[in-house]
Amino acid sequence: MNAQPSPPTSDLEYRWGRNFQEKAIEAMLFLAAFLAVAVTASIMVILVTESVGLFQTVSIVEFLTGTEWAPMFEPPTYGILPLVCGTLMTSLIALIVAIPMGTLSAMYLSEFASLRAREWIKPSLEILAGIPTVVYGYFALLFVTPLLQKILPSLPGFNMLSPGIVMGIMIIPLVASISEDAMRSVPRELREGSYAAGATRFQTALKVVFPAAISGISSSYILSVSRAVGETMIVAIAAGLQPIITFNPLEPAATITAFIVQVSLGDLPHGSTAYQTIFAAGLVLALMTLVFNIFGHFLSKRYRENY
Amino acid sequence: MVSETSGHRSQSGIAHKAKVEAVNLSFYYGGSKAAIKNVSLAIPEKQITALIGPSGCGKTTLLRCFNRMHDLYDNNRYEGKILLDSTVNLISTKIDPIEVRMRVGMVFQRPNPFPKSIYENVAYGLRIRGESRRRVIDQKVEQSLQQAALWNEVKDRLNDQAYDLSGGQQQRLCIARALATDPELILFDEPTSALDPIATANVEQLMLQLKDKVTMLVVTHSMQQAARISDYTAFMYLGELVEFDQTSKIFSAPAQEKTRDYIGGRFG
Ligand SMILES: Nc1ncnc2c1ncn2[C@@H]1O[C@H](COP(=O)(O)OP(=O)(O)OP(=O)(O)O)[C@@H](O)[C@H]1O
Ligand SMILES: [Mg+2]
User: Fold this and answer.
1) Of A186, A243, B4, B52, which cross-links A69 as Cys (Cβ 3.0–4.6 Å)?
2) 3-state class of B144 per DSSP?
């Protein structure tokens, strides 16, 4: 940079090469992170702009509070509540299955299973997670529903219970693996403290390991909520696609996702009101997921891991 | 090597009844190499016994035999006996390790409070023993915190998280937790190594106050600490017990050359 003879301190000189490399890496990492944010943002923008069209014909209030959903009929009605209801009901059933089963599996794997048992069970759970959801959908429709009909003869062929349960089974590995990681990272001293006090394995798992890992465990629950709310194929195949408001799990229903897939498979004219409902429904779905995520974030902040 | 050293020979000065006694105790972390080699050691009742020796000599390993902590992990093996009150062999396969731990408390090197409130930490041992009477638990929690010299600092915040306490307070909480179930023996593994001098002094003070109620066995790296608080000192080297005697004797006139070297700071 200058013409002076290099002083003896020259080996402390600013390393342009190394610093440039650092900056370049930093820029690349930023780009990767930025890309994810940008994609999310543009999806939101598309959802909003396309929905705006709908809200010029249908009032937002009617859309959000109407109890009848028939956008393709004459005269069309645009009340999203039946779809929200179907989504929440099937998700609730799924969570009632997935959360206890997933948590118990995680507890078993982390605190009880021998090395050999883990070697068998973990890959099996991973396989469960890798099955395509279409397969789960037909599993619900063709296997679980008939099975349930043996116990409940009045159960219709399409209902919320069966896809809900199957969706729960699909989500078990998600809850189990994240919760297991959280429990396994609880320090050994904490466990030993409990054992040293005379606790059994189960007492230790339930009263010390579980609360110590609650932050990670609750984030697995939140993820599973998003997964359930967003699940499409299983409910589209086995729940019946009938938008009615009901809290009876034995009845059929349509979810937001099932509606979207149903409608977008037909050939709707671009820009038609029915076409725009897809985006409005998608927006509601995205917002629901967002609310659950914020709520979950808040929860796990509150029960932060501090050992 | 010190293989011909017999623990018994140097026990001449032991005037107290033994609370627990290791008899030809060996311990293996799997394999055939013993981490504890044929140790015979009688821990005097209602006294503080210090366990000293260079790093890796087996102090922690020996300590954890007394509450069967090693049973938590596979492949660990004991040989010999540990007699409680000169009668029951604690490491017999007929004895339930959980029952042993019900009667022997333990305080760890790093404070390890549970992710619960201060109150629930102390109540933990009572609750897992099935105690549910609020009055009994309240009283025991207060008493234990008093004994652990922590009551005055926490009595207005018993429902706060235990993590909100300082390191020294957390360690005293762990001592209170161990005291709440009235153990007959408390094992301390370097209980003050994570604490500053003031917190260390507090814990030492506390141990001295507990002496007339409970037998204590404490692993320590600090010779000064052993000298300050213990009545008896056992010196271990390479998994063997080299010498066991009254602390005053060990520090003034050790019988074994190895002990003299260690105390004189020539190794370890
Ligand atoms: N879990 C384990 N598995 C196998 N070997 C172990 C295990 N824990 C300790 N050891 C070995 O047993 C010996 C005694 O270890 P121990 O922890 O009892 O030493 P220590 O005297 O407590 O040392 P320090 O003063 O450093 O804590 C060491 O050689 C150690 O490597
Ligand atoms: Mg140690």
Assistant:
1) A243
2) helix
Q: Give Cα A184 distance to the centre of its chain.
A: 23
Pocket lining: B59 vs ligand 1, CB cutoff 6 Å: yes
Residue with CA nearest ligand 1 atom 31: B56
Where are chain B's structural domains?
18-112+187-263
pTM (2 d.p.): 0.83
Which strands, in side-by-side order, build the sheet including B215-219?
B104-107, B185-189, B215-219, B48-52, B232-237, B240-246
Give the mean pLDDT of A290-296.
87
CA B68 from chain center: how many Å?
13
What is d(CA A224, CA A175) in angstroms, rounded to the nearest whole number?
Answer: 7
Residue B119: partners with Cβ closer than 8 Å, 6 or more residues away: B141, B158, B159
CA–CA separation, A181 vs A183, rounded Å? Answer: 5
In this structure, what DSSP letter does residue A253 have? B
Q: Which residues lie across from B104 on neighbouring strands?
A: B185
Nearest ligand to residue B234 Cα: 1
Asked whether residue A4 carries a pLDDT value surpassing 60, the answer given is: no
CATH topology of domain B18-112+187-263: Rossmann fold (3.40.50)
**Domain range A70-306, its CATH number among 3.40.220.10, 3.40.640.10, 1.10.760.10, 1.10.3720.10:** 1.10.3720.10
Domain residue ranges of chain A, discontinuous segments joined by +: 70-306
The string of pLDDT tens digits covering residues B86-96 is: 899 999 999 99
Q: Which residues contact B186 (CB under 8 A, 6 or more apart)?
A: B104, B105, B106, B107, B175, B178, B179, B210, B214, B215, B216, B217
Pocket test for ligand 1, best of B27, B33, B59, B192 (most atoms within 8 A of CB): B59
pLDDT of A302 above 90: no
- Angle CA(B128)–CA(B146)–CA(A189) in degrees, nearest 5? 45
Q: How close does chain B come to A114, measured CA to CA in Å?
A: 10
Please identify every stretch of chain B with a pLDDT value under 70, giving residue numbers as ranges. Answer: 1-14, 267-268
Roughly what angle, to the nearest 10 degrees, separates helices B197-210 and B134-147? Answer: 120
Mean pLDDT on A239-260: 91
Q: What is the pLDDT of residues B197-245, one digit of tens each?
A: 888 898 899 899 998 889 999 999 999 999 999 999 999 999 999 999 9
Average pLDDT over residues A223-248: 91
Residue A250, H or E segment: none
Q: Is B194 on the interface with A (CB under 8 A)?
A: no
Nearest CA to ligand 1 atom 4: B29
Ligand 2 centre to CA of B64 (Å) is 10
- Distance CA(A237)–CA(A187), nearest Å, equals 44
CA A293 to chain centre: 9
Which residue of B27, B39, B60 sits with most ligand 1 atoms within 8 Å of its CB, as the best mutation to test the pocket?
B60
